[in-house]
Design a protein that fits this description.
heterodimer, A: alpha+beta, 4-stranded mixed beta sheet, B: mainly alpha
């Protein structure tokens, strides 16, 4: 799966990383739903950190991403306007 | 695909499909797509230049605020030496407001510099993708076997479109930030001008709106401490360099 962190870059995550990715995504969603900005920031940072363990794709890579995460400095309000309650990562 | 059906993603797809729907012939689509990409790449570069310009303007404004703070400090000293403590306090209060704002501006300029670096990285990525697209389109044209070509075109164009949107988003965020900072710096600059202390005799000292605003945004503790320090300097002539630690001078 290819995940883009907006304003940062595209990462390729291996099949076996996906379950953990979905777990982290679900945590971000529940933090967002609780409207707790501090918790959201922490969970979102964890999700980004995990995505960054994937392979950063070369600049000239031409394919689209399967998921696009909000920019790393996105606030809770900005991020919630960007994704649905299903989470950031499509199933 | 549920989940990431956000504004951002939808926007990318809408733009790309508009380009792809333009022509029936894949070869033509590819060429048109590439031209469009070059155009947008130029726009992105323009956006980055704009961010850099705004940042420079903001830094100039910071310089002006620093001068204003220095001027107010001088006026506070003069007023105190002339025995007008109220006026001195007013000047120091304004100076404090400007200094508070400067501290926050410094941090924001640093953030902006970081964003600017990311923008440049992003633009390089976009450039690389557009270049890759140019090569890829010739490959696709050469093989040109119906359905396959269409899928490849769509993939490549979406990939470039995504990067375009990403650079656009980064430019937008940086611009929002500079606009916001500029507005705040302007507002604080006006505080000093509105309460112009060039002619101290004209200031009655009866708290106007401006003073009330200032009182809200500044901590009077800092102003008191600074006033005490100035008094000590004036009294001693020899100017002690550190702030008095507490209220021991309050009765002075």
């Amino acid at each position: 799966m290819i995940v883009r962190i907006a304003t940062e870059g595209q990462y390729r995550l291996a099949e076996e990383q996906l379950p953990r990715l979905r777990e982290l995504d679900a945590e971000v969603v529940s933090a967002a739903e609780s409207a707790n900005a501090e918790l959201f920031e922490r969970r979102f940072a964890e999700l980004l950190e995990f995505v960054r363990t994937g392979d950063l794709l070369e600049d000239a890579y031409l394919g689209p991403s399967d998921a696009i995460l909000p920019p790393p400095d996105a606030s809770l309000a900005e991020a919630t306007s960007e994704f649905s309650a299903d989470g950031l990562i499509p199933s | 695909m549920p989940g990431l059906e956000g504004r951002f993603n939808t926007l990318v797809k809408a733009k790309v499909s508009a380009v792809l729907d333009r022509a029936e012939d894949p070869g033509e689509t590819l060429d048109y797509s590439y031209e469009k990409q070059l155009e947008l790449l130029q726009q992105a570069k323009g956006g980055i230049v704009e961010v850099v310009t705004s940042k420079k303007r903001l830094q100039l404004q910071e310089g002006t605020l620093r001068e204003q703070a220095a001027k107010l400090d001088g006026q506070a000293r003069q007023a105190l030496a002339a025995g007008n403590e109220d006026l001195s306090r007013q000047a120091l209060t304004r100076k404090q407001a400007i200094e508070d704002e400067l501290g926050s501006l410094d941090q924001q300029v640093a953030d902006l510099e970081h964003q600017q670096q990311q923008l440049t990285d992003n633009e390089n990525k976009l450039q690389a993708k557009v270049e890759a697209f140019r090569t890829q389109k010739e490959v696709i044209k050469a093989q040109y076997s119906a359905a396959d070509a269409q899928v490849q075109i769509s993939q490549a164009a979406t990939g470039v479109g995504e990067q375009m949107a990403d650079v656009g988003l980064a430019v937008q965020r940086a611009m929002d930030k500079t606009e916001n900072m500029k507005a705040r710096a302007d507002a604080v600059g006006e505080l000093e001008q509105a309460g112009t202390l060039d002619d101290p005799t004209e200031l009655g000292g009866a708290g106007d709106d401006l003073d009330r605003q200032l009182a809200q945004v500044t901590s009077t503790g800092d102003v008191d401490a600074e006033l005490d320090k100035m008094k000590a300097e004036l009294a001693g002539g020899g100017a002690p360099q550190q702030l008095p630690t507490g209220d021991e001078e309050a009765g002075a």
